[in-house]
Amino acid sequence: MARDHEPLDLGETELSAQDERAVRREHDLDRPEVFDERNDVEHRADTRAELLPEEEAAGSADPEAQAREVLRDSDLRTEVPESAPDSFIERRTAEQST
Q: What top-level branch of life does the organism fall under (predicted)?
């Protein structure tokens, strides 16, 4: 679980160094234990660690750690959309959805 104490990775962004420092501070990215607690990552990982049949066939050394990383990545991309500059996020209003 040494990975759990490393700062969270924003990946490549278009943020300036100053903006990235502000984002890291605002979202506790250098304090992953605080980020995890705020987002209830441990509990959510426990409830999602059961492998699907196709995942079971492929195997996983640590399903809980795998679930934790997926949740962290999802939470990070939700909180800091700039962390996924190559991702396209489409936002629709209710009128556009119908």
A: Bacteria
Q: How far apart are CA 37 and CA 24, in angstroms?
A: 16
- Residue 67, token pair as written in the block: 């679930």
Could you give the number of structural domains in the chain? 1
CB 43 within 8 A of CB 37: no
C-alpha 79/C-alpha 93 separation (Å) is 20
- Is residue 70 within 8 Å of residue 44, measured between CB atoms? no
13 lies in some domain: yes
- Is 22 a domain residue? yes
* Residue 69: inside a domain: yes
**Tens digits of residue pLDDT in 36-64:** 999 999 999 998 888 888 878 888 888 89
